[in-house]
Amino acid sequence: MKVLIVDDTNTDRLLLKLHLSKLGYKVIEAANGQEAIEKFVEHSNQLDLILIDVQMPCMNGFEAVKSIRKIQEQKKQEWLPVIFLSASAEDADIEKGILAGGDDYLIKPISQKVLSAKMLAMKRIADMRRRLVESNRILNELATTDHLTGSANRRAFESTLEHEMSSSRRYGSRLACAIFDLDKFKVINDTFGHDAGDAVLVEVVNRIKANLRAGDTIGRIGGEEFGIILPNVEESEVLAAFDRYRCIVADHPVVHESINIAVTASIGVAVYAGEEESKEVLLKRADESLYEAKETGRNRVVYHP
Ligand SMILES: Nc1nc2c(ncn2[C@@H]2O[C@H](COP(=O)(O)OP(=O)(O)OP(=O)(O)O)[C@@H](O)[C@H]2O)c(=O)[nH]1
């Protein structure tokens, strides 16, 4: 468990550090409110608890914690327990501490026994918090990932598309969006079996992922249908970029259980450059190009600038 100790009195800070280190806690120190905020920002991913003195010059503990809570809210971070340490036993001060975002308030001088017990209680909260963060991470992954191919699922793909379209509007950049559909996939399933079909889907996604630039996205938007987003592309690069993906699929068969499975894909492209257009209309334009690619022989990229 990692604890940030904030106290402007060196001896108090040192004593606390000594005691917590003996109990096995890792300690980071700050000597004032401003430094506490800086240390919090630097270590927020690993911190489990803040122990902070109230009376400090320039910025007192209450103000520092209010700022920390604001940062946490902006960054959508999980709750981090805070214990105030103060020489004042006034009810009003205790109330202020809780209102400022504290979870507990200890009156100085603090007995080592009480501090050890409070630390144990906070460790329980820290463990619970860590489990919650991990569960949220797993839930988010499940909600946004296609379980077979590991690519973004339709929901995550559409949300990325919306985000990229708004960046395109803001910065005047151009983004290319394509619908990429494997050809005659039913025949692959019927000839080689559903497991072979699954292996083809996984291999195709892996090949494309290995060739995407940072910031590009592939998402599975249907059974054998994928969406690809290339933000910040030059008009002259669009066709060549998607033709490269077509070749990456068509040039080498997928080998499954020592059987070579030839696969091709048809790709329909639409480019967005900040127009008044919804993602549904953009995807519809890509879909119309895909339809044309299928109708005119498959294993083709169709793009009408
Ligand atoms: N193995 C496997 N097959 C899937 C999966 N999802 C969808 N499919 C199959 O993909 C096939 C899609 O067939 P169609 O929509 O007829 O299209 P197609 O055979 O690819 O023909 P064209 O798109 O016209 O070239 C169907 O047979 C689906 O059962 C999957 O997760 N795994």
UniProtKB/TrEMBL annotation:
Domain GGDEF: 173-305
SUPFAM superfamilies from the UniProt entry: CheY-like, Nucleotide cyclase
MF (Gene Ontology): diguanylate cyclase activity
Catalytic reaction(s) noted: 2 GTP = 3',3'-c-di-GMP + 2 diphosphate
Entry EC no(s): 2.7.7.65
Pfam assignment, any one: GGDEF
CDD domains, sorted: GGDEF (cd01949)
Residues modified as 4-aspartylphosphate: D53
UniProt keyword Nucleus, yes or no: no
Top-level EC class as recorded in UniProt: transferase
Keyword Nucleotide-binding: no
Keywords from the UniProt entry: Nucleotidyltransferase, Phosphoprotein, Transferase
Domain Response regulatory: 2-123
PANTHER family documented for this protein: DIGUANYLATE CYCLASE DGCM-RELATED, REGULATORY COMPONENTS OF SENSORY TRANSDUCTION SYSTEM
Name of this protein: diguanylate cyclase
Organism: Marinomonas primoryensis
